[in-house]
Amino acid sequence: MSTYLAGNTPWPLSVPVTPEGRRLLDLVAGQLPEIAASAADNDRDGTFPYATFERFRDSGVMGATVPAELGGLGVSRLYDVAAALLAVSTADASTALALHMQFSRGLTLTYEWRHAEPGAQVLAEGLMREMGAGKAAVCGAAKDHPSSTTTLVPDGTGDWILSGRKTLVSMAPIGTHFVAHASALTGARTPRLAAPIVPRDTPGVTVLDNWQGLGMRASGTVDVIFDECHVPDRNVFVRDPVGARNDAVLAGQTVSSITMLGIYLGIAQAARDSTVETLRGKSGEPPAGARTLISHIDANLYTLHATVAAALTNADTYSADLSGDMDERGRRMMLPYQYAKLTINELAPAIVNDCLAVTGSRAYATTHDLSRLYRDVRAGTFMQPYTYSDAVNFLSAQTLGLDQDNNYMSVRAAKSAPTT
Amino acid sequence: MSTYLAGNTPWPLSVPVTPEGRRLLDLVAGQLPEIAASAADNDRDGTFPYATFERFRDSGVMGATVPAELGGLGVSRLYDVAAALLAVSTADASTALALHMQFSRGLTLTYEWRHAEPGAQVLAEGLMREMGAGKAAVCGAAKDHPSSTTTLVPDGTGDWILSGRKTLVSMAPIGTHFVAHASALTGARTPRLAAPIVPRDTPGVTVLDNWQGLGMRASGTVDVIFDECHVPDRNVFVRDPVGARNDAVLAGQTVSSITMLGIYLGIAQAARDSTVETLRGKSGEPPAGARTLISHIDANLYTLHATVAAALTNADTYSADLSGDMDERGRRMMLPYQYAKLTINELAPAIVNDCLAVTGSRAYATTHDLSRLYRDVRAGTFMQPYTYSDAVNFLSAQTLGLDQDNNYMSVRAAKSAPTT
Amino acid sequence: MSTYLAGNTPWPLSVPVTPEGRRLLDLVAGQLPEIAASAADNDRDGTFPYATFERFRDSGVMGATVPAELGGLGVSRLYDVAAALLAVSTADASTALALHMQFSRGLTLTYEWRHAEPGAQVLAEGLMREMGAGKAAVCGAAKDHPSSTTTLVPDGTGDWILSGRKTLVSMAPIGTHFVAHASALTGARTPRLAAPIVPRDTPGVTVLDNWQGLGMRASGTVDVIFDECHVPDRNVFVRDPVGARNDAVLAGQTVSSITMLGIYLGIAQAARDSTVETLRGKSGEPPAGARTLISHIDANLYTLHATVAAALTNADTYSADLSGDMDERGRRMMLPYQYAKLTINELAPAIVNDCLAVTGSRAYATTHDLSRLYRDVRAGTFMQPYTYSDAVNFLSAQTLGLDQDNNYMSVRAAKSAPTT
Amino acid sequence: MSTYLAGNTPWPLSVPVTPEGRRLLDLVAGQLPEIAASAADNDRDGTFPYATFERFRDSGVMGATVPAELGGLGVSRLYDVAAALLAVSTADASTALALHMQFSRGLTLTYEWRHAEPGAQVLAEGLMREMGAGKAAVCGAAKDHPSSTTTLVPDGTGDWILSGRKTLVSMAPIGTHFVAHASALTGARTPRLAAPIVPRDTPGVTVLDNWQGLGMRASGTVDVIFDECHVPDRNVFVRDPVGARNDAVLAGQTVSSITMLGIYLGIAQAARDSTVETLRGKSGEPPAGARTLISHIDANLYTLHATVAAALTNADTYSADLSGDMDERGRRMMLPYQYAKLTINELAPAIVNDCLAVTGSRAYATTHDLSRLYRDVRAGTFMQPYTYSDAVNFLSAQTLGLDQDNNYMSVRAAKSAPTT
Fold it and tell me: Among A29, A375, B217, C369, which residue's Cβ finds the most Cβ atoms within 10 Å?
């Protein structure tokens, strides 16, 4: 097991801050040996870890972020969710990425349940009760396939027809529901952003088996096609009109994605722990180069832990505080998240690279953990939000007071907007 | 004033964690404009900011880390001390470095007062009462001048004769007492480390005016000569024999120095704030290079804040906990401190460099703040403990389980040990 | 085709320095489209590019570094060999790595043919005539499998018995001969280093099909087992006794490996060219982050070209000059090679990483060139000589005047030396 | 003396490529001890090295780049000029920066003499004959003081009136002539760029003594005021109209400035040599951190040498070839220059920083060479052309085929253009 879980450690993100978080960490920690045992095979074959997710379901992990009142574990802090994902990631990052889908949905649905208008509350509650009972695995489907713009069109009866193709939908092999972000063509001049909940057995839903990633190969990150699916109006979360310039949504986008930082931190942690074990196994005085690199590996890992922990703490603080300007709250949540993301995208690969250099050519074999970690860690660059260029635009605009639309979902939708 | 103090900010180390810490921050924040106003002149002339320290004395700042029972402000958290030093450093790093001397003595003397044997408690209490009353400015004098080994020799009456020359003693221009780390030649085969308290008016004490630093030019970091000074036995803190391999002392070394991280963070913060102000003052769309660099500057600054804050929180946690193995406690305090130090020594200069690149040639004038910050920030490399090579040795030894003496004071003393 | 071959370019290593080098570059340039076309499939399946090597044989490429007098193309400059490998590598780095084996043997055998004692000259000439005729593909087999020490034992008739297992033997699928570096147990107290030439059809030779590399998957880099193979004495190059401290051998080690720098440069070039093409294909003003990164990608690529070109020019200069101290010549050849290797191991992966960041998530698909380049480029860290730690030891020893054995083959042999 | 001049070395830019270049290097090499001896004092006091420049004049160095036919040494290769500046810079970078002014003028005036229209040829010849005779020290004055736009206005008799204030004019304390880049208000709708030659004793010329640089403190880089100076028409080089989009001028801008790369390389070289000397002077095994850093310092220095040498070779090649498209020639000269400049601005400071870390706190004293080198090296960021942001714009525009005006002199003039 990773040394970072072995009792007292210097790593900041190793200890959850709430009892619920500690319970979750205990639950997943107990499953790490089995997760680790199948990681290499699943990676090689691109196989989704079905058995692992059955254990997650049976042990209550799949309802971790569902409120206790609705049958879940009630883990509400982003910090604790990231700590659990970190632990899973040290055993297998693909598993953590798929699990993140479920955790993320619980966190955002909880917000809907607590603060949305009544219809949305009902929708959120129903879905979460199923999650808490281990019956629902809910996948976010945010990104359109390049060939498609996902739309909701009124069916004339008050319900909707959903069409489009989504890509990069993790955990889809076991997904029971999809949150398919779409442009709703309401008849108004501007489409609205909307998030219909679509059960997998809806006629017209096809889940492909087409993930061909450089890494994260067991995460089941595939395309899902919606071919004129009927969606009852009560199953649609309606958002802003495209182009609304609403920074309040940055809060939800932060909550939805920030805990992924724990996954990439877990990869770096696993690489470091593997390398330390290799070096400790060698006889004789370690050479100068190895001593120097391992010092920097550790310092960088500590820096990453601290930075991710700080961004999570910041997000938890603002997430719990609805008293002020909601636009300002959105920006204050997104800002440190993006700082931490820039840093993790630089330091996590650097740590893995240094680990390869210290470990030597054995690390280049597909059978060595580091060769998987080297591929997995690179996915971090592509975590949404934002792309590198979008992050530069957002951060510099915030600092320099430049005007721009910060809602990347809206910007994307505007680009591909069908004329109405 | 620096933007980081302007209300809510994303920077983690901008808010103290105790009421005493907030009071201290308020006290120094009120003095920042005056400190900033004289920074350039003091830097150019290498002048110590006497007036600033008079205000520090009058406002109680000089007793900040003295327990309230002894007349001080009772700031006990390293976190809060570093936050105050950060604030001062955004106005002038030299002033913060000198002030650190006093804060550091209060912190370490408080430990003596609480936990040492009775004689040392009396000594610590007396000194701190004077600090709390604004009468004592106490300088640590740890490093021997290359030409000298500082020794305590018994005078035959139970007291001691101190001889030697110390270097890099900050705040010495106004120092009323010096803690002159020395090897006590007790007659035993191995000398003991000892720390005599020497009032400035002791016959034989000479404070030179010989600071010629690349930066930190107003910090009064000079040599102090002890020429056969008489030191009563009651004024000597006695430590371990040289070579004792006592990792418990790492705790005191951490407490004594870790808050300096706030100073170098403050330099990076000041450079960033200055650069943002320059960019905001320009008309037109900022160029691509500037937008990209400012994003990285901000991300690096956030990373530094988070890392320093985490190391300080770690040190505060262990500092307050005397329940376990004291050797282990020492190592656990020093480890994250050194991680953070490696990181600050890399990122703080990187931030200042990027700020120079964005600001342009005007920043290269001696009259521009950035040219001072560029020189000041480089001092961070030389903060004790440790040197770069000693840090690599310590960190890699901890991680790889290598055997070595971690007490750099003892190692130094052993190298220059006079035969007894 | 890569833009770096498209007429005048700023890239230093795009133009060979001799007519023979230009002829070789023309020959391989004509084959790049076919090499590129099969690169993705060969990578996915781990298939050796047999058809490509048949074309190499038919067109004379397999005899490129054989002197014209012996039927080859007579390319003698390391610079030109590296330029050809760079070109091949822009289409497929695995192919370039396998081809390097053959080129490297021609270069080192030419030295034997010109300067060795008569028996070795005959051996080298015979082998090179076969290479020039397209009949021989000669693999160096330098590295012992961890389970084995490769030895030559006298058979009592004046010939030898070779036993051992070699690993990381590129081009082995089509190898007709193996240069199997071994310790010759001559009966003297110290074994000698020796390099027997072993035809593939020698009884006891088994070429495995066991390459499981993270990248360079089409390079046929497998293990070769020698099970009591009979080797006539005339087929053995005899070198120094183990531990001879002979820096002259650094010349041959440089010649044998330095052209591999072209391979890793080619990977970086291919990544850059792919990324520029992607960016040029997008409409609208490129975002600030992309403009900044592409500038650094280009600057880093230029820096790598210049550095590799300089190290090759240096090696060519000393390679042609046998007039001075041969130990000094060896060190002067190895030193810039190792400087360039440290730099390429840092900058080539950095370029590929930045290309991924600019290109976006499409680059993470296994079907995208960048996902192969990301895996291939990492092999550079493990090019022999040296490992990272050995490089630090060598370079710092040279600069600081420290004493050590610089012959890594001898050091390795000494570590695993069987007692005689 | 710097080790890089001590016989055979691995550093590429240590050997000039022409006999004239070698003669120049020999001339300056003989003067290095005296230059080095006064460097610290001149830096501290901000004093121009008058005596050094008298020796330069007496030994012919001031005419180094003047053709032999006109009384100079006839050094025509940028490579050789940079090699000489590098040598001077290892002793004192300020001296090299001032000397660069004179070398640069010889190079650009030679082009005018050979290729301009007859009037300009006469002007160039006359000035160069004085330079060759040691009578003229000619300063380029390119940058306007922020408070001023330098203009040439017709005086009604066919001559001109020059007014304005130039800043950052190096070598001005001994300058006999100034090339004062100005906007000539010819009466046409668009002003023309022009370069009048102004003798120092022209009424209205005032050379200030106002250099307050962080480093390069002995370079005499001051402001020069032109207060309605009369300039005969024959003394004006007339260039393009502002906004002409003439990339051919990039050639002259490259020739004028690229040899400065040698200066910043010399600073890095001096830092490295000083650090190696310090390490060699210590007893005992060097620590792991120092061994690792010195290896990277050397690899980075080699990389810089190679990169700068390649950019200079490229510039020399195109500089000598006037056969093709002059716009294309300009871009091809500027491109590698800017690649090398980005790299030197990153690696030269990195080398100096690492040298400080290895050397330890003694390096932070103003009396230590490294503390001067730390300040001097930072000037590289501000070498024209280009600023960091302008370089990103130029390089990305070249690579991505974006349209923009590459003539920074023209862009600047357009920004501050007075209406005519």
Answer: A375
